[in-house]
Amino acid sequence: MIAAALISFILSLIHRKKFKSLRYIGLYPLASLLQILIFHNFSSLKIINSTVSIFLSLEFAIIYHFFFQIILSEKLKKGLRILCLGFLIYLLYMWIFTNSFFERPEKIYVVQSLFILIPCFFYFAQLFTIPPTIRLIESPIFWITTGCLFFFSCTAPVFYVYTILNLLGEFDILYWIILIAYSIFFICIAKAFLCKPIQIEDMVL
Q1: How far apart are CA 124 and CA 142, in angstroms?
Q2: Residue 204 phi, psi (nearest 5)
Q3: DSSP secondary structure string, 69-101?
Q4: N or C: more exposed end of the chain, with fewer CB within 10 A?
Q5: What is the largest distance, in Å, between two alpha-carbon atoms of the chain?
Q6: E strands in 30-141
Q7: CA distance 175 to 168
Q8: How far apart are CA 195 and CA 102, in angstroms?
Q9: What is the pLDDT of residues 150-205, one digit of tens each?
Q10: C-alpha dihedral over 179, 185, 191, 192, to 10 degrees?
Q11: Would residue 42 be called left, alpha or beta, if left means φ above 0 and alpha means ψ between -120 and 50 degrees?
């Protein structure tokens, strides 16, 4: 996972001006790498959990900025704004009135995943409303959205089960699922930056 994150971050730096819609995506693997360093170099659970909470909010911001760039329909964009506002209200509520910031950031993750999966479906719904112009495998936006859909679809159900059964202390299986899912997501990000620039890329696909 570290190798995949590092490669995707390096490629995002090299090709940072290649695709306008991917402008801030490179911050995502960088934030993941920093979170790994904190996880393995700090013993205080409060510090680790607080940085996880910050990471989750940054993750949401980066991904939603990406979807605001690629969703063309005004109705879907309005839906994105409502979802964004709804999650921010939920996030502030959880941070202020529960112990999720310093002790239980996983309380936020499952809800956050649902809020991120919905824009993924917005994108795929959008594909059916526009004429096909390029092959999807040549579209960086397709790779980012597919990686996002795969990652949160795989991790959210497992996290939910572990949370309701209070099994987060038995982290081995969950940990490996997250590692594999993250690795695939970062590979998708790397692939996106290796796509060839196309004139209409940032408009639709």
Answers
A1: 9
A2: -130, -60
A3: HH---HHHHHHHHHHHHHHHHHHHHHHHHSSTT
A4: N
A5: 53
A6: none
A7: 10
A8: 40
A9: 999 998 888 777 777 666 555 567 778 888 999 999 999 999 999 987 644 444 44
A10: -150
A11: beta
pLDDT digits (tens, 9 = 90+) for 66-81: 999 999 889 999 999 9
Q: Give 3-state DSSP helix, strand, coil % of the chain, rounded to 5.
A: 75, 0, 25
Give every CB contact of residue 65 below 8 A, 6+ residues apart in sequence: 24
pLDDT digits (tens, 9 = 90+) for 87-142: 999 999 999 999 888 888 878 988 999 999 999 999 999 888 876 666 788 899 99
Q: What is the rounded CA–CA span in Å between residue 172 and residue 186?
A: 21
- Rounded Cα distance between 188 and 181, Å, is 11
Torsion angle defined by CA atoms of residues 175, 187, 202 and 19, in that order, rounded to the nearest 10 degrees:
110
The residue type found at 79 is G
